[in-house]
């Protein structure tokens, strides 16, 4: 115990030292950090047991270790920004800077959870990007980065502190389950999700990649660009007055929904969404194909293979979020440029004033804050189309080089089903005899749900559920979700059991039993049987 206390004390000093070097001392306030509380507790225990003389000796040892680390860093070479610039994305060795440190991250790139997005900062500072992605500013990430330090940056080239790019984000409902604060990403509360067939706007899950733009609707223009570069510009008011409006009920689901479940099977990369990165709304707008036709675009032109979308949300380089869908999908009746969500103007978090709605497709293709539509012979070259939202084989493991061009971009989502209530590890009384459950099911491509089944004996037997569906959509064109409810009997003689749910769609696709055959390093489109453990009280 004494050795453990001394060890933690040294680690505490070591970590505090690196934080100070990185200029982040204020971010790790010891009064609010359990790590520091433990370190102080360990130090106090050491003092109480060994006495003052031993404690002073320990402090001297720690101080010597700290001085050694400082000296080591002082002996590292000094680089100018022009030296770092030579090690950009096309160089043999990739360098980046963070505050006053210079780092060779070449060997880390294959392991980066965000893929090779890190190359956006190659030969330059990561500071502007880390200002957008707050998950980097943790002690663990900083320690990993320090392992790649090769030098110090000339003080004249150290970037100034970045302003908070998220200071103008909108307010959010307190019931949302926040998975990341900056950029803001949050799930709908499971206990409320099945109370409404169409999810209230304030409870609709939020998936943002960048800061939320603040756009004045009256000033916003949507540009439509043809294959030869000709463009037309339309205001939001012109869209509403010039074209016929359509309303469609449609789900939006993040490609990473239920990633946390897959991570329990085997570690994956990405934001740990649980089961409610999905919501359902009524969207009103104009058909995409009407806009294309008005711009003189023949939607059956064989040269045009894809339609690109660009948003107003941009990264530090000014590059907008972008995505594309095949023209075969774009010319369908269901694809719209929406301006209303559940009967009111689309809220800022969900794309105000315009969002493209691509029913049946993954959320990543349904670009928010839409500013430009482009027809093309090829897919969008956006990072989020080419280097993200692609599911690799289970044979590709963490740390392997990801060959993005060997797998297609995700478009339609496979059949999905999840239980919202009861929550995992709910305690039920055996005398109650039954448990009430509720949840959702949905399948991409407009494939309606034809059956939802529940098991309480690990899949040996199944029972069907009562389903609620959109009355105006048929099984061949069902873009809204299916809600389900059921009452199941508590199995006799058990102290705990799993409630399992799975769905079957119109094409008789169903969900795999486990993640073993669908596991992928990015944790995408996880749709194995959903299991909720229940504890039985006597």
Automatic annotation (TrEMBL):
Matches recorded under CDD domains: eukary_SO_Moco
One GO cellular component term noted in the UniProt record for this chain: mitochondrial intermembrane space
Lineage, highest ranks first: Eukaryota, Metazoa, Ecdysozoa, Nematoda, Chromadorea
Cofactor: Mo-molybdopterin; heme b
Its EC number(s): 1.8.3.1
Pathway as given in its UniProt record: Energy metabolism; sulfur metabolism; Sulfur metabolism
GO biological process, alphabetically ordered: sulfur compound metabolic process
Localization (cell): Mitochondrion intermembrane space
Full protein name: sulfite oxidase
InterPro entries cross-referenced by the UniProt entry: Cyt_B5-like_heme/steroid-bd, Cyt_B5-like_heme/steroid_sf, Cyt_B5_heme-BS, Ig_E-set, MoCF_OxRdtse_dimer, Mopterin_OxRdtase_euk, OxRdtase_Mopterin-bd_dom, OxRdtase_Mopterin-bd_sf
UniProt-listed Pfam families: Cyt-b5, Mo-co_dimer, Oxidored_molyb
Domain Cytochrome b5 heme-binding, residue spans: 76-154
One GO MF term: sulfite oxidase activity
First-level EC class: oxidoreductase
């Amino acid at each position: 115990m004494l050795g453990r206390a001394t060890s933690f004390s040294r680690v505490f000093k070591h970590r505090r030292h690196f934080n100070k070097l990185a200029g982040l001392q204020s971010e790790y306030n010891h009064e609010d950090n359990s790590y520091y509380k433990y370190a102080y507790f360990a130090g106090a225990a050491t003092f109480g047991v060994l006495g003052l003389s031993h404690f002073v000796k320990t402090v001297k040892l720690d101080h010597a270790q700290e001085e050694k680390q400082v000296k080591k860093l002082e002996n590292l070479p000094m680089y100018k920004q022009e030296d770092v610039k030579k090690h950009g994305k096309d160089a043999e060795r990739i360098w980046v800077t963070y505050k006053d440190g210079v780092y060779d991250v070449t060997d880390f790139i294959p392991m980066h959870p965000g893929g090779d997005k890190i190359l956006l900062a190659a030969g330059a500072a990561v500071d502007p990007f880390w200002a957008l992605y707050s998950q980097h500013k943790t002690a663990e990430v900083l320690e990993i980065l320090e392992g790649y330090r090769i030098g110090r940056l000339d003080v004249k080239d150290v970037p100034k502190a970045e302003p908070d790019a998220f200071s103008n984000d909108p307010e959010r409902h307190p019931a949302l389950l926040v998975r990341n604060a900056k950029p803001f990403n949050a799930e709908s509360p499971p206990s409320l999700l099945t109370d409404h067939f169409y999810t209230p706007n304030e409870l609709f899950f939020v998936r943002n990649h960048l800061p939320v733009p603040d756009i004045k609707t009256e000033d916003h223009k949507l540009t439509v660009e043809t294959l030869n570069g000709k463009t037309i510009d339309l205001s939001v008011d012109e869209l509403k007055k010039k074209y016929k409006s359509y309303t469609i009920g449609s789900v939006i689901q993040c490609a990473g929904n239920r990633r946390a479940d897959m991570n329990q099977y085997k570690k994956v990369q990405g934001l740990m969404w649980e089961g409610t990165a999905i919501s359902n709304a009524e969207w009103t707008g104009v058909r995409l194909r009407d806009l294309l036709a008005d711009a003189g675009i023949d939607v059956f032109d064989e040269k045009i293979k894809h339609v690109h979308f660009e948003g107003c949300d941009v990264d530090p380089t000014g590059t907008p979020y972008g995505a594309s869908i095949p023209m075969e999908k774009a010319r369908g009746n269901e694809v719209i440029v929406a301006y209303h969500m559940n009967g009111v103007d689309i809220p800022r978090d969900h794309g105000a004033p315009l969002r493209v709605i691509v029913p049946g497709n993954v959320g990543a293709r349904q670009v928010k804050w839409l500013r430009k539509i482009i027809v093309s012979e090829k897919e969008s070259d956006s990072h989020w189309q080419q280097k993200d939202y692609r599911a690799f084989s289970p044979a590709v493991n963490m740390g392997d080089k990801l060959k993005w061009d060997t797998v297609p971009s995700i478009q339609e989502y496979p059949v999905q089903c999840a239980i919202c209530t009861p929550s995992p590890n709910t305690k039920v009384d055996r005398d109650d005899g039954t448990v009430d459950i509720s949840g959702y099911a949905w399948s991409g491509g407009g494939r309606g749900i034809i059956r939802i089944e529940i098991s309480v004996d690990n899949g040996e037997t199944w029972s069907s559920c009562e389903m609620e569906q959109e009355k105006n959509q048929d099984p061949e064109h069902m873009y809204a979700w299916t809600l389900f409810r059921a009452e199941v009997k508590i199995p006799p003689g058990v102290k705990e059991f799993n409630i399992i749910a799975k769905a079957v769609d119109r094409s008789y696709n169903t969900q795999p039993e486990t993640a073993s055959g669908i596991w992928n390093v990015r944790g995408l489109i996880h749709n194995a049987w959903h299991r909720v453990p229940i504890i039985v009280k006597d």
